[in-house]
Amino acid sequence: MFTKHKKVTLGCAVLLALIVAMFMTGTLSYPWIMLDRQTQLLTRCIHPTQTFDAAPFGFTISAPQNRCILPHRIFPADTSIQIVPEGYYSVWNEYAKGTIAEASLATFLFEPLTPERNAQTILRTLESGGFLVQASTTEYVTANGFTVIEVRNASGIEAGKLFDWALIDHPNGKTTLSILSLHPEDPTIFHELINQLAVTHNEAQ
After folding, report:
1. Higher pLDDT, 7 or 113
2. Which of 40, 50, 158, 168 is within CB 3.0–4.6 Å of 177 for a Cys-Cys bond?
3. Could you tell me the pTM of the whole model?
4. Exposed, middle or buried by CB within 10 Å (0-12, 13-18, 19+), for 190?
């Protein structure tokens, strides 16, 4: 029979062992990371705002109603942004079952624009990788002045799955943006995201 003192001692020993194990495996920061991410999910996706100013990259993103704009937890150090339906997302579920990845309607990825990495070179990379065999490519200019290379029904590394891409070089010559949609069967939101892209206020100055 455990006394209260023995239970407290055992509990402390287990907690200490857990902390030591997390330290040894480099996971000591995981509880903080998960709490930080859960807070972000609650503040951004329960009652989402429809715009996000990605100022370091010169773009303002606008999402349709009932969709939330979810930057990476350490954005802009990690330059990815997900567009997901409004709602409650659990960090445990996200990490264990990939909820955010499964719910994602589009992914934004910003990169420095260089001669080696821009809309045209990304397109050529997709082509040389054999991802454009059954795809169609169009180029157009949005009402906000962005030249877009749009690739419809590109293949990927998963057999049978198709994707849509939008490749955009910012007019400031500093950033290239790739937008990936996992739902080519309904490109409505994909096109809304492209057409509502704008130059940030700072860039407009």
Report:
1. 113
2. 168
3. 0.81
4. buried
